[in-house]
Every structure is written in C-alpha cells, then in structure tokens.
Amino acid sequence: MKAMFYEKRDDGRVKCRLCPHNCLITEGHAGICGARRNSNHDMEIPYFGRLSSLAVDPIEKKPLYHFYPASTVLSAGFWGCSFRCPFCQNYSISQNHDLHSDYFSPEELVQLAVRKKSFGIAYTYSEPLIHFEYILETGKIARKKGIKNILVSNGYINPEPADELLEYLDAANIDLKTFNSDFYRSEIGGKLEDVKRFIRQAAPRVSLEVTTLIIPSKNDTDEEISELAGFLAGISKDIPLHLSCYYPTYKYVIPPTSPELVERLGETAKKHLNYVYLGNVGLRETNTYCPGCGECLIRRSGYSVSLKGLEGNSCKKCGTKVPVVGI
Q: Residue 150's closest CA among 124, 171, 126?
C-alpha cells in the first residue's frame, strides 16, 4: 500500500514528510522507523494492518485518568518506532517488525471493538504514528460508528499530517520523555521542540494527558520537572501529568526509580498543574482531587476505580468543574 506525505526525487530517492526526521530514503530501504520504505520510487507501507498485539485494557493503563474513567478499551499494538530509546519498555516490538503477524483491516478492527463492546480503540504499545494511514482509515470508520479514537504516542509527527489525524482523535497520552533537548537528540534520536509543538497542537482538540518516565540521573531534577510542568501549565493547568517510575530494561542498567523520588517530583509539578499522578509506585492510590476544595473525586487503587466524589464532571462538595470526559 502506498503511503501519504512524501516527495519523489529525480535521483530515485523519496523524502518522507510524516515526521520531523524527514528521512531521505534510497531505493529498497526504509526510513528510521523501519515502517515506511522506498519501493520502485514510491513510498510503501509494508506493515499496514500488521498488529503486534491486541488486548482489552483498563483505560487507566494507557494511562488516561480523565477520559472515560473506569472503562475498558480495545488496544491495538504495532511494530517499529521513530525513536531509539535505550530504556524502552516495549523494545521487543518497537525495535522489530514482523510481516507474518496477524493482519486486521481497519474495518475488522472496528468490528472487533463493536463485538467487545469497547467504547473506543487505543492505538498504543509501540509507536502508532508511523502507521499513520492505518490509524487515519480506522479512525474514520470508528468515528462513523460512534467509537472513540485514542492515541498513545511519542508525539513525533509533522504539523500537516498531525492536523489531519487530530480531526479523528478524541484523546491522547503523549510521552514527553524529558525537557532536555540534548537528551532527546543524543539518547532518544529526536527533537524536544517538535514534541512540544505537537502537544500545543493537540491540546485544544483532544482530551490530552502527558506521561514522563523518571530515570535517575537522566531527567530527575526538580528544576527539569518544574520547567516541564510549567510548559504544560502555559497551555492549561488542567493537563494531567503522569510521572512514572523507571525500571531497568533494554540497554539501561541504571537502578530503578524510587517511589519517594517520584513523590518529591510530583510535589514540584503540583506547583504548576492541577492534576499530577504517580505511576509504577506499588500499592499507593493514584486519586484525583478537586483543585477547589481538595475533596477526593476519583479513587484509584490499582485498576479499581471509584467515581463517588463526582456529580457529572463537577465536584459533589463544592461544584468545581473538572476536566473529566465520559462520566
């Protein structure tokens, strides 16, 4: 299948315009993501519809805490990635491809969501944006069926395709890996400014949440988290931020992040944002509190979720409106 967003060059190369890498690809080769290939002077997408995984997950696992809380969602995984994170927790699929994996057409994936009685489809696990055409086609079909489209992504996409895709998205969690440009460039293989631009582009159009994995000695200072939270607050203080504990995997052998460190950084982030959540912190509850009166609105213990503090999307105690969709 032919891709979108590319240019043919007179010398037989093609230039991909999907993401900020803007790969210039010679005949028979793929771009950085591995999922978009120059075949006979055309950009082909050989992994269209090849899914690495399918599951029905709690929406909180994405993590999305303010979008249809306490619901489950059909989750579709892909192959490949536009980044090369040495700490990737899904490296077995992000750094590999499998043409022999199960094929699901966009129509079949939407039909499966209907059969599973899922309110939406989450495009997740590995990087979905490099499979832009599949998500766009599936998203259009899902929208007609009243099914929500959810993106869990690194946010690395150029403005024009982002604008087209956002038309069909309802929610997103974007992985903002650090607020250090050098770290993005040297260890991840991308540019911080392009991820920030997509977050700004997406925030007015979808229910947006952001996740940062806290890695000791890499992105764990109060100064960096304060800058990151301040950036989000400059868009909206109501953007939920998830700060998660890292554990050693793939190429990193740095000792795991302590919950106490993430708790401290969470307090730093709360100076800027109304909703900050801690991830991978064991048995600690990750509750939503009213920014007006402090009342517990949504209680979470693992994936057990109670919405007893809400009446619609308002605090029962003081009436403060909270940005929670799908109550």
A: 171
Helices within the chain (DSSP H only): 91-94, 106-115, 132-144, 159-166, 181-183, 192-202, 222-235, 259-270
Per-residue pLDDT tens for 221-266? Answer: 999 999 999 999 999 999 999 999 999 999 999 999 999 999 999 9
Query: How many whole angstroms separate alpha carbon 286 and alpha carbon 276?
Result: 9
Contact criterion met (CB below 8 Å) for 37 and 29: yes
CB of 139 within 8 A of CB of 108?
no
Radius of gyration of the chain (CA): 20
**Residues across the chain:** 327
**What does the block give as tokens for 303?**
């994936």
Question: What type of residue is 174?
Answer: I
**Whether the Cβ atoms of residue 209 and residue 64 lie closer than 8 Å to each other:** yes
**pLDDT for position 100:** 87
pLDDT tens readout for residues 15-60: 999 999 999 999 999 999 999 999 999 999 999 999 999 999 999 9
pTM more than 0.85: yes
Domains present along the chain, CATH in parentheses: 6-44 (no CATH), 53-284 (3.20.20.70), 285-327 (no CATH)
pLDDT of 283 above 90: no
Inter-CA distances, 154 with 81, 125, 157, 255, 298, Å: 9, 11, 9, 24, 27
- CB contact at 8 A, 310 and 51: no
